[in-house]
Design brief:
Elements: H1 9-17, E1 21-26, E2 30-39, E3 42-47, E4 52-53, H2 56-72, E5 77-80, E6 96-97, E7 105-110, H3 117-120, H4 124-132, E8 138-143, H5 149-163, H6 170-177, E9 182-189, E10 214-223, E11 227-235, H7 237-241, H8 244-258, E12 263-265, H9 281-287, E13 293-296, E14 301-304, H10 307-328
Parallel strand pairs: 3-5, 11-12
Antiparallel strand pairs: 1-2, 2-3, 2-4, 5-14, 6-14, 7-12, 7-13, 8-9, 9-10, 10-11
Helix pairs in contact: 4-8
Length: 329
């Protein structure tokens, strides 16, 4: 079975450290991690990118097991995210497609094969920037120190104000970084003044005077036995001028390959045919400059057990979304 990190035993430990109640079941032909989520109208079970199963029969067995556990926990519904699209016809008749939590579409870069991967699968422009980055004052470092998560938070908060998106609390991100599978990468700019770069293509208005080193981009990655997941990242305005995210991404891929991993998961792209104003349009365009391929999952579905309470939950969820949009504006 192909198992996402979010259905792994390592993810069980993360959820428990976050204070979540987790139900984990592992069988020869199926596996699922279900998180018990609480709401004002009752709890529900959430399987991030799960359940995982070999085939139709084992998928149905996993659903039966989840259904029994949900009833024992008096859950009002079960939220599932099966990755295999071929399981679609075997969803229960009452399955209700929900707003996706984990991306339904992503971009995967194959790290295996010929040694010339960096010449054949990565953007030449970003490879040039990566090669000259240190000379131009940009260095990449990696850390597992939870206190360093403050850099990612600062950059994400600025992005959230600009794009109106939600971010994770500091305690959540610190707990993630403390896990064995997590690493934080930081792009630090050492501004040595304009004189050194007066004929440099990367010279910007920010380079007129020397200044203190500044973190201009950050990326949080998770690794399992085969895949590096590019989970979260952000950069500053100066970082954009310096192509910091592109340089950082090259470093993430380079390290993943040296570690012996087989795939690099960019973690989310806009769906095929999405309009140019889709919130992920720019991210998607950047990710597709790498010579990977799309991977499509089934999506997020709710399986109601108590229809009346489930309808109340949906109404409250809709009101909370409206409230968040108003607060953001």
């Amino acid at each position: 079975m192909e198992i996402s990190i979010t259905q792994s035993e390592a993810w069980v430990e993360l959820q428990r450290e976050l204070g979540e109640k987790v139900i984990f079941q592992k069988r020869a032909n199926f596996q699922f991690l279900a998180i018990v989520k609480k709401t004002p109208v009752g709890n529900y079970l959430y399987c991030p990118y799960g359940p995982v199963a070999n085939e139709k029969s084992s998928f149905c067995q996993a659903l039966d097991s989840l259904n029994k556990i949900a009833k024992d926990n008096r859950s009002i519904f079960i939220r599932i995210e099966p990755q295999k699209t071929e399981f679609g016809p075997y969803l229960p008749k009452n399955a209700n497609q929900s707003k996706e939590l984990n991306p339904k579409d992503t971009w995967i870069l194959d790290l295996s094969g010929a040694d010339d991967i960096f010449n054949t699968r990565l953007p030449n422009r970003l490879l040039r920037y990566h090669k000259t980055a240190e000379r131009k004052g940009l260095t990449i470092k990696k850390t597992k120190n939870p206190e360093e998560i403050k850099h990612l938070i600062r950059l994400q908060n600025a992005l959230a104000r600009e794009k109106g998106i939600n971010t994770f609390p500091e305690s959540y991100l610190k707990t993630e970084l403390s896990q064995p599978f997590a690493t934080l990468y930081l792009a630090e700019y050492h501004n040595r003044g304009a004189e050194e770069y007066k004929n440099d293509e990367m010279l910007t208005i920010h380079d007129k005077l020397p200044g203190k080193p500044e973190i201009v981009a950050a990326g949080l990655v998770f690794d399992d036995q085969t895949t590096r997941y590019n989970m979260q990242g952000a950069q500053s305005d100066l970082g954009r001028h310096l192509h910091a995210t592109g340089i950082l991404t090259i470093e993430l891929i380079k390290d993943a390959r040296e570690k012996g991993l087989k795939f690099f998961d960019f973690w989310g792209i806009a769906p095929e045919g999405a309009p140019d104003d889709h919130p992920w349009a720019a991210f998607t365009s950047f990710k597709k400059t790498f010579h990977g391929e799309p991977r499509h999952y089934l999506g997020t579905y709710d399986l109601p057990l108590n229809l009346a309470k489930y309808e109340s939950y949906k109404m409250l969820r809709g009101l909370n979304r409206i409230k968040r949009k108003v607060i953001t504006k």
